[in-house]
Amino acid sequence: MNKIGFNVLAWSANMSDELKPILDRLKKIGYDGAEFFVGSPDEAAYKNIGNYCREIGLEVTTVSVLSPEENLISADAAVRQKGLEKIKWIIDRSHDLGSQVLCGPIHSAFATFSKAAPQEIEYERSAEMLHQAGDYAAQAGILLTPEALNRFECYLCNTMEQLGYLLGIVNHPNVKAMFDTHHANMEEKKLGDAIRQIGPRLAHFHISENDRGTPGSGHVPWDETFAALAEIQYKGWLTIEGFTRNDPDFANSIGVWRQFSEPWDMAENGFAHIKKMMAKHGL
Q1: Are 210 and 185 spatial neighbours (Cβ–Cβ below 8 Å)?
Q2: Gap between the Cα atoms of 50 and 192, Å rounded
Q3: Does the N-terminal or the C-terminal CB of the chain have fewer CB atoms within 10 Å?
Q4: pLDDT tens digit string along 23-50?
Q5: What are the residues whose beta carbons fall under 8 Å from the beta carbon of 39, sequence distance 6 or more?
Q6: Helix intervals (H) in the chain
Q7: Which DSSP state fits 48?
Q8: Residue limits of the Xylose isomerase-like TIM barrel domain (predicted)?
Q9: 3-state secondary structure of 105
């Protein structure tokens, strides 16, 4: 059975006790898990929040990104190695949280462009590093699920076709695919076709409205999406990822300049929307 999660980036990218009442309420709504951004340097806080999630019965997934100085597709081997070390640090912090899945555009640096289309050598560089990261993550019991982003945030993997190609080169049982409906809404011709294409490798799924607001309030084709998930018999997480201006530093870093929806509207109405779609399509 699919589990339903919520990404707490709707409130904060920081790891602190301020998240605990939020986690309590997510548990009360009925969520199976919470997703956290791994970036804060306060290493002790990850264990603290991870222990709290275990106490209240919330499972955990994580998400992160790489900086230009950690780009796995850089021509500079030292930069690529720094990226691999950063992923290992992210895996360690994810392990501290008790995470099952680490997702995000960890195949290359976020919002970093070469002013050219992706090159074969860049896929090969990324694949080499991700294979090594897969070995490290397997030891921690964490599945890596790289994410395709829209063209304004990434150029290596915008579509499931590109992501599937990369994962074919990675060729590691612990490195699978994730799908985000917000990015797919911009880059794929048909979401259902894209889901079926990546289906054999799909291991994580973000439920995100076209404007990053409350799922079900925009124009993402949810019936097509859930019908395709049922067709491929997807059994992984269905995690809401919506963004707000609540954490200004994080919002500024990803170009979120207005409030799409209030966090609890996303959490409560988004949960109801997922349950409705799951029941309708037999997930």
Answers
A1: yes
A2: 35
A3: N
A4: 999 999 999 999 999 999 999 999 999 9
A5: 13, 64, 65
A6: 20-29, 43-56, 77-97, 120-140, 160-170, 181-187, 191-198, 222-231, 248-253, 263-281
A7: H
A8: 23-251
A9: coil
Instruction: Work out the angle at residue 162's Cα, subtended by the Cα atoms of residues 161 and 164, and round it to the nearest 5 degrees.
Output: 65
Measured between alpha carbons, how far is 175 from 150 in angstroms, rounded to an integer? 21
* Superfamily, domain 3-281: Divalent-metal-dependent TIM barrel enzymes (3.20.20.150)
Q: Is the dihedral of CA 209, 210, 211, 216 positive or negative?
A: negative
* Overall pTM surpassing 0.90 (yes/no): yes
CB 66 within 8 A of CB 39: no
In the DSSP assignment, the letter for residue 13 is: S
Bridge partners (DSSP) of residue 11 are: none
- Residue 277 neighbours by CB under 8 Å, 6+ apart: 222, 223, 225, 226, 283
For helices 43-56 and 77-97, angle between their N-to-C axes, nearest 10 degrees: 40
Closest Cα partner for 34 from 97, 88, 86, 84?
Answer: 97
* pLDDT one-digit tens code per residue, 127-184: 999 999 999 999 999 999 999 999 999 999 999 999 999 999 999 999 999 999 999 9
Beta-bridged to residue 156, according to DSSP, are none
Cβ atoms 238, 2 nearer than 8 A: yes
